[in-house]
C-alpha cells in the first residue's frame, strides 16, 4: 500500500479512498450519490481531498482526529442529553469548506463526523428510535433527535453489512454455492 497512488502524498487511508474514486464522476446537486464512510476512512484530510475531487462526503471520525476539534466538541457536549448536536464550520488550507459535527447519541456516547459543506443539512431529521427495557422488563421506545445528515448516514451506512450478512448467514453462499462449485471443479479434473 505504501507505493500505491496518492498514498505518499496523503497517507494510506485517504489514498485508498481517492483510489476508489478514480473514474467516478461527481454528481452535482444530488446528495444521494455522495460518499458515506465509517471511521476507518474518516479524517479531515480525507474529507478535504475527496471534496477537491468534486464529491460530497460524510465520514465518521474516531482515531484519525488530527485537525478535528474533538476535544472542543466533547467539552461542549459533556453534560448534554441525547439528541443534542454541535456543528462547527471551517476551511482547510486548500480552501475546502468542511463541517465538524458532534452528536450526543446517548448519555454515554458522542459521535463525531466530518462532512463536506454541501453533504447534507444539520437541521433536525428523522429521529433515532432508541429501544430500551424499563424496570418491569417492557421494551420501550424513545425518539431521539438527530441531524438530517446523520439520519441519512445511518439509513445507508450499513449497506455493505447487510450484503455481507445475506451472503454469509442468510444465503450461506460460501458454504453452499461456492463449495459446490469448487467441488465440481475438483471432480472434473
Walk me through this protein's architecture.
The protein is of the alpha+beta class and 189 residues long. The chain has two domains: 113 residues, no CATH class; 32 residues, no CATH class. Helix content is 33%, strand content 22%. It is built from seven helices and seven strands. The strands form two sheets. The chain has a five-stranded mixed sheet with strand order 1-2-5-4-3, with helices on both faces. Strands 6-7 form a two-stranded antiparallel ribbon. Helix 2 packs parallel to helix 3. The longest helix is centred in the C-terminal third of the chain and has 12 residues. The two termini are 37 Å apart. The mean pLDDT is 80.
Radius of gyration: 20 Å
Overall number of structural domains: 2
Which segments are poorly predicted (pLDDT under 50) over 5 or more consecutive residues? none
User: What share of the residues does DSSP label as strand, in percent?
Assistant: 15-25%
Question: Could you give the count of β-strands?
Answer: 7
Major sheet characteristics: 5 strands, mixed
* Helical content (DSSP H or I, runs of 4+): 25-40%
How far apart lie the N and C ends? 37 Å
Topology summary:
Elements: H1 7-10, H2 12-21, E1 35-37, H3 44-52, E2 57-61, H4 70-76, E3 85-91, E4 97-104, E5 110-116, E6 128-133, E7 139-144, H5 148-156, H6 159-170, H7 177-188
Parallel strand pairs: 1-2
Antiparallel strand pairs: 2-5, 3-4, 4-5, 6-7
Helix pairs in contact: 2-3
Amino acid at each position: 500500500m505504501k507505493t500505491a497512488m496518492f498514498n505518499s502524498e496523503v497517507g494510506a487511508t485517504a489514498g485508498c479512498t481517492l483510489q476508489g474514486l478514480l473514474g467516478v464522476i461527481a454528481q452535482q446537486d444530488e446528495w444521494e450519490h455522495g460518499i458515506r464512510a465509517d471511521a476507518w476512512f474518516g479524517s479531515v484530510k480525507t474529507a478535504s481531498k475527496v471534496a477537491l475531487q468534486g464529491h460530497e462526503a460524510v465520514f465518521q471520525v474516531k482515531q484519525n482526529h488530527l485537525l478535528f476539534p474533538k476535544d472542543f466538541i466533547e467539552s461542549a457536549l459533556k453534560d448534554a442529553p441525547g439528541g443534542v448536536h454541535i456543528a462547527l464550520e471551517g476551511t482547510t488550507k486548500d480552501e475546502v469548506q468542511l463541517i465538524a459535527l458532534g452528536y450526543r447519541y446517548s448519555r454515554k456516547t458522542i459521535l463525531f463526523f466530518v462532512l463536506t459543506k454541501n453533504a447534507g443539512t444539520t437541521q433536525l431529521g428523522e429521529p433515532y428510535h432508541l429501544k430500551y427495557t424499563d424496570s418491569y422488563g417492557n421494551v420501550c421506545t424513545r425518539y431521539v433527535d438527530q441531524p438530517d445528515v446523520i439520519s441519512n448516514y445511518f439509513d445507508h451506512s450499513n449497506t455493505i453489512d447487510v450484503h455481507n450478512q445475506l451472503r454469509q448467514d442468510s444465503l450461506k453462499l460460501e458454504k453452499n454455492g461456492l463449495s459446490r462449485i469448487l467441488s465440481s471443479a475438483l471432480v472434473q479434473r
